[in-house]
Structures are given as structure tokens and as C-alpha cells.
């Protein structure tokens, strides 16, 4: 397959207009285009990835932080949006340097491999595995505690220890950011991913 200039910036440098960029990016994968989706579904996936984790983790984080959590949540949301935009730039650079296979289901791994080499992609994979087991333990703990639930609970005041512990919980709740390159890759118009991220950040 002929190597193409798949980066938005590179296409701009070649004098190609915005209207033709998305068509140029998808011209090598027309056979997969029917399986791709628009910006509406991209926003839905962005919200679903984070809300699904947040519903489990965030209530306890708010309890541990108290009213400060009201300000902490949008702050971490901003950090997640910034990370998503940087991942979008990384995906664009990777697409510029080599043709990305439409059958590849781990675009984040491709970015890591291109940036740090072949062996570092396994370190990124280990992070995903760690998140999976962490979520499993959270679900197990929830089920185990169902028998001891009461109609009323005494909420303790936040401490330095609980505040620091909740920071990790907030990070965990936005851990789905690594799936964003896959969402962008599967869009009909990948150039609209930044808009999807910004709308998704407001929704979160």
C-alpha cells in the first residue's frame, strides 16, 4: 500500500483544503468505511467510557474530599481533555509517518510503539491490565459489602489521608482516555475528533 501523507498538518502544508482532508485520510480504507461512525457516536463513546468508570469510583472520592471535590472533578476533567487532545496530535503524527492498519484494534499501542519503541508498548498494555483487575476488585468489594449496608451512615470529615487517596480515585475514573485513539481511528471524519472531545468534556 502506498505510503500517504495522512497527517492533517502535512495535508495543510501540501495546500489541501479542510474539505478534502477527511476524504484523503480515508481513501485507503473505503472497504471499512461502512463500519465507521460519525461525531455523534464518537461523543457517546467518549461519555460512555468515562461515565461507566465514574459511576463506580467517584461517589467515594467525593465522600473522601468533601466539598473540595466539587472543584476537583472539573479540574481532572480538564486534565483528561488535555490528554485526549495530545493523544489526537500523537495519532495524527503516527498516521503521518506510517500507514495505520484499519484492522488494528489498539491504536494507543501503535502510538506508544512509534514513540518509544517496540518493547514499551507492553508497558502500556500492563497499565490496561492493571485497570481491569482494579475494576474487578471494586466490583467484588461492592458485592461483598451489600450484606452490611444500612439505611443510615455517618460520614466522617475529610482528612489529609482521605484527600490524597481520593486523588488516585479521580485519576482512575478518567483512565479510559487511552481508548480515545481507537475512537478517532474509527470515525468517518477523524478531523472532527477534537470537537467530539470538547463536547464530551462538557458532558462529563
From TrEMBL:
Q: Which UniProt keywords apply?
A: Membrane, Transmembrane, Transmembrane helix, Transport
Q: Does the keyword Transport apply?
A: yes
Q: TM segments?
A: 39-61, 67-85, 122-143, 163-183
The Amino acid transporter transmembrane domain, residue ranges? 40-124
Xref: InterPro entries: AA_transpt_TM
Q: Where does the protein end up?
A: Membrane
Indicate where this protein is primarily found: membrane
Q: Which GO terms describe its cellular component?
A: membrane
Q: Which domain of life is it from?
A: Eukaryota
- Pfam families documented for this protein: Aa_trans
Q: Which PANTHER family match?
A: OS05G0424000 PROTEIN-RELATED
Name this protein carries in UniProt:
DgyrCDS2544
Species per Swiss-Prot/TrEMBL record: Dimorphilus gyrociliatus
